[in-house]
């Protein structure tokens, strides 16, 4: 792939990524970073007008569309909807998502008395639920621990965290690792199958605990690699 | 506390730590590092003679004893038994462990077709099981991700990993953090309550996945602190 720079603008594309739940902070943050890295990004929302507004300020490569619109043009689709909307959103888009790489970054969490709590998921994890609901898709878990405020902070030029990548489809995982590695400061690390996703998702609770206690945006690095 | 050095020997002690399951690689590895840091360590085993043998080569500060012997002299007791022996060992020592800080580092894992699998625990986690079985003890979870081969490798002078510490008793957690921080290269990071322990324990599966794939001893650092 040849990337040509004109006036600091990347004019070719690394590909198109759709983001379901693209109006949330996580979705917008990932869009911003992926666009900077050279991807075209379509934010998908049930409300297309909100998606268009959410795309503003994230650069020329980021556009807003419907949920279906975000899937149709994209080879890789990131699921960044709230946990409450996870099952329904995927069920509604089952056919459209067929054959695509679906990157699930949803954390099944609730806040009880203001404390973060990892929720039990019948299928074992959000990722496994996605795999059950999308038998024709290539489900990969990633981006669970990346702090949205850092993603959206333009002054943070280099993120400082690894991204744990889980999935049963190794080539799909490798494509996602490549996408992650295109973002400065991120490094994708494959660390298991979909059956190993639950603890990766739930660990977000522990990071929130650290964030609140120390007023930081904690991330994770794997050492010894 | 005044630490006096004579001929490179630390002659005062930072305290005495007991290790249940002290003949295993994790127990011996922690003993080696804690003794180097200035703690007296008692390895406890059902077989006292095996405990004495396990203590050999770990330095003058490490001795072997029975399980009861490892508890009685220690303010802090590390539980490093195999998961299969977790409930019974703690049940048998309930009275002796009363009032003490019990550091649970047990990972409820199994290997199915040679693949590591996180086991479901009725109480939610090994740490929570410990808290149920030891209502009079101060249970803290820690050391889940520290690779035993690195702990035991004398050529590794500086370990390179954080230790996630969970617990409901904050002063007990802080004492454990202090103990962790005494070991070069380790840093204790409080990251939640006992209810948040399950995913910390289960994450060991993901690290084993990385270790096998890349032939490394992976650890974890928390970034952004």
What key attributes describe this structure?
homodimer, 225 residues, alpha/beta, eight-stranded mixed beta sheet, two-stranded antiparallel sheet, 13 strands
Describe the structure.
2 copies of one chain form a homodimer. Chain A is of the alpha/beta class. Chain A is built from 8 helices and 13 strands. Chain A has helices spanning 25-37, 48-55, 67-72, 83-92, 126-133, 148-152, 170-181, 197-214, and strands spanning 5-6, 9-10, 16-20, 40-45, 62-66, 76-79, 101-104, 109-112, 115-118, 138-141, 161-167, 186-190, 219-223. An 8-stranded mixed β-sheet of chain A has the order 5-4-3-6-7-10-11-12. A two-stranded antiparallel sheet of chain A has the order 1-2. In chain A, helix 4 runs parallel beside helix 5 (126-133). The longest helix of chain A is centred in the last third of the chain and has 18 residues, at 197-214. The first copy, chain A, is globular. The two termini of chain A are 28 Å apart. At the A-B interface, strand 11, helix 8 and strand 13 of A face strand 11, helix 9 and strand 13 of B. Strand 13 (219-223) of chain A pairs antiparallel with strand 13 (219-223) of chain B, so a sheet runs across the interface.
